[in-house]
Specification:
695 residues; alpha+beta; six-stranded antiparallel beta sheet; four-stranded parallel beta sheet; 19 helices; 51% helix; 14% strand
């Protein structure tokens, strides 16, 4: 019994719920924080995904067979509904045709359909399809086995495509939409299918092999992006031997994420994006911290000899200082004079730089006046731009180009001819007036800067004289070998402190002016000192969306559970009592009332449970007015290992009836079971002469 669908919250409601969880953020801040990570919450709309195969055409040459070598051509007309690629014997090409079709639809052959000995037979594969109502034809040319190039054709109508013969690629209403070399085929098909079906890549994380563990025992992870090739597992089903319910791997709950996607669970994709962003931020932060710890430990080990030498030097200096004369005042005077000298020297350098800039500005303004007086073309440009260098590459504009601008009327930047300019005396006078005003201002600025230089030179000379005097007094007081030994010891201490500071990346032991510089250059950035509320917003968004996704998933899974049990019974899965899909991807099946893990099913029943899950998702979606699954299923040998003829017959009938009764479903199976000929009419069966070799 279908439950009433839960109403999905609007994007505005979600932003408000997230903002309510973060005291420092409002709705606008939440939007900005999520947008910075490429995440935008949008109210979900009903999905309408559909993929229909209308024709499969193959060319190739069989080699290495017992009695059937030679060129072959296969031309299959398909469409919505049930289809069987059938024969009365094995090893005649059924799975190989399904593999060729999967290659065109996926951009890479589906491994479960692959028969290694037949891969090299195919030279050309054509698949005419409709993707969300758009007619397209995928053409693969195999110059090397399993390495095709691709041409993607589009057409005004499907009929324009199907009217083309064999490998013909030109015709009325048909055009080449895209091409790809072998190494880009998968990328092209992935992009085409995701775009047309309205799907987004799914990012998951897996631990890096060999990566170091952190304090919690977790390893660094690498992002794994799942695109159309992974989504395709809901179209082409795993073989019965696979223990994964849906998809290429059960890691990181991929099966349940695919189910949520194909059940159109609202905001499931956005939740994955948010969790991926959090994982990226967290991992990068952990890596930075770990590198800092490792670097600190390495520096500690490398600098231990320096620390020991410093301790010995400090002990020696302390012993000498214990008997030193009272020269504290002289030392203070020298230190004060040195600081003043350093300050005045820095002030002089700054004043000289300011003077140089002022002089350069004055020369530039004077040159502008001269050019305005000499060239009408230059006057036309000076009001807008007089560049010193190319604004794109910073290459300096030399005198030759400026001369060409004045004499040949060619722009000094791009060398293009300058427009003819009619000299307007009033405009010229106004321009000259402005430029002369700029010259006067720049001359005044230069004079002021020159005076500042002279003032700072005087101050610097005075402070240098004061320093020399103080130093001379100290030198005079320091007579005798004791002072020589003390200075030598102190010098050793200073040198070792400086070496240790450089080695450890901090200002410990350096003179104050250098210490301040080191501290400033190694202090945490604003971002490190006080991280904003971005992390809190991502965490709150994850919590809000997790609840929305969980609530809707549970409601949809409740409907899906019943569909799976019913369809599985019809397919011949015996004694299945119930299933209870969980948010971690477990099927939680029970047979005869007891727990029955998915891997405990027989290979045949695993495939049938997979079929039941996919068909169940399609039916649940249809009941809710959505077409979130493309509606196409490719199933290889659904009764291959079935020992009961009755069960095999029931499974074949159920597959036929399922696709025949629902116009939105297309099922293509391969089989050698006798029941195929009973339920699939001749116009729904692809076979070879005498129901044997297909090609």
């Amino acid at each position: 019994m279908t439950t009433e669908p839960l109403p999905a919250p609007s994007d505005s409601e979600l932003y408000e719920l997230i903002a309510a969880r973060v005291p420092s953020a409002d709705v606008q801040r939440v939007r900005a924080a999520l947008s910075a990570h490429g995440i935008q919450l949008t109210s979900p709309l009903p999905a309408r995904r559909q993929l229909i195969v209308h024709r499969l055409y193959c060319e190739g040459t069989k080699t290495g067979t017992d009695d059937n070598d030679g060129a072959f051509t296969v031309d299959m007309t398909l469409g919505p509904g049930p289809w069987a690629i059938a024969s009365t014997m094995n090893n005649v090409g059924k799975s190989s045709l399904l593999w060729a079709l999967s290659y065109a639809l996926r951009g890479d052959g589906f491994e479960a359909f692959k028969r290694p000995e037949t891969v090299g037979w195919f030279s050309y594969v054509r698949a005419d399809i409709e993707v969300a109502g758009v007619a397209a034809s995928i053409r693969l040319t195999f110059d090397k086995p399993d390495r095709p190039s691709c041409r993607l054709l589009s057409a005004d109508t499907l009929e324009h495509l199907t009217a083309l013969d064999g490998s013909q690629e030109t015709g009325a209403g048909v055009r080449v939409a895209a091409t790809a070399e072998p190494d880009r085929v998968k990328e092209l098909i992935d992009r085409f299918m995701l775009d047309r079906l309205g799907l987004r890549p799914l990012s998951l994380w897996a631990a890096e092999a060999g990566a170091p563990k952190n304090a919690d025992g977790n390893r660094d992870s690498a992002e794994q992006v799942h695109g159309w090739a992974s989504y395709f597992y809901a179209v082409a089903l795993n073989s019965g031997n696979s223990s994964v319910l849906l998809g290429p791997t059960a890691y990181n709950q991929l099966p349940v994420k695919l189910m949520q996607l194909f059940l159109d669970v609202p905001y499931a994709s956005e939740l994955t994006q948010i969790n991926t962003a959090r994982k990226k931020d967290s991992q990068e932060s952990n890596r930075v911290q770990r590198r800092a710890r490792e670097d600190a430990h390495a520096r500690e080990q490398q600098t231990e000899p320096l620390r020991q030498a410093l301790r010995a030097a400090e002990e020696k200096a302390a012993a000498l200082e214990a008997g030193q004369p009272d020269v504290t005042g002289l030392l203070a005077e020298v230190d004060t004079a040195a600081r003043r000298l350093a300050h005045d020297q820095a002030a002089l350098q700054e004043a000289e730089e300011s003077h140089a800039l002022a002089r350069k500005a004055r020369l530039k303004d004077e040159r502008a006046v001269r050019r305005a007086q000499q060239s009408s073309a230059a006057r036309a440009l000076l009001g807008a731009l007089d560049p010193e260098s190319c604004p794109r590459c910073d290459h300096e504009i030399d005198d030759a180009r400026r001369t060409a601008e004045e004499s040949e009327h060619r722009c000094s930047v791009c060398a293009s001819p300058l427009p003819e300019v009619h000299d307007d005396p009033d405009a010229r006078a106004a321009l000259l007036s402005r430029l002369e005003g700029r010259v006067n201002a720049s001359r005044t600025a230069e004079d002021t800067a020159r005076q500042a230089v002279e003032t700072t030179i005087t101050a610097r000379d005075n402070s240098r004289a004061a320093y020399d005097l103080a130093n001379a007094r100290l030198t005079s007081a320091r007579s005798g070998s004791w002072y020589t030994h003390l200075e030598s010891a102190r010098e050793a201490v200073y040198q070792l402190r400086g070496a240790l500071a450089v080695a450890t990346g901090n200002g410990t032991g350096l003179p104050e002016v250098v210490g301040d510089y080191v501290t400033a250059t190694t202090s945490p950035t604003d971002t490190e000192e006080g991280s904003d509320d971005g992390d809190a917003i991502l965490e709150a968004a994850s919590e809000v969306l997790s609840k929305v996704v969980a609530d809707h998933s549970k409601a949809l899974f409740a409907d899906l559970n019943g569909e799976i049990v019913s369809i599985a019974h019809d397919l011949g899965v015996a004694n299945l009592t119930s299933v209870d899909l969980s948010l971690n991807g477990n099927l939680n099946a029970r047979k005869t009332g007891a727990k029955h893990p998915f891997k405990a099913f027989s290979p045949t029943d695993r495939l049938r449970m997979r079929i039941a899950a996919i068909i169940g998702m399609i039916k649940v979606g249809r009941k809710r007015g959505i077409m979130s699954h493309p509606g196409l299923l490719l199933i290889d040998a659904p009764t291959a290992e079935e020992l009961s003829h009755g069960n095999a017959r029931q499974a074949i009938k159920t597959l036929y009836d399922t696709a025949a009764d629902d116009p939105g479903i297309q099922i293509v199976i391969t089989s050698i079971d006798d029941a195929v000929w009973e339920f699939f009419p001749e116009d729904r069966t692809v076979t070879g002469p005498d129901k044997r070799q297909l090609f």
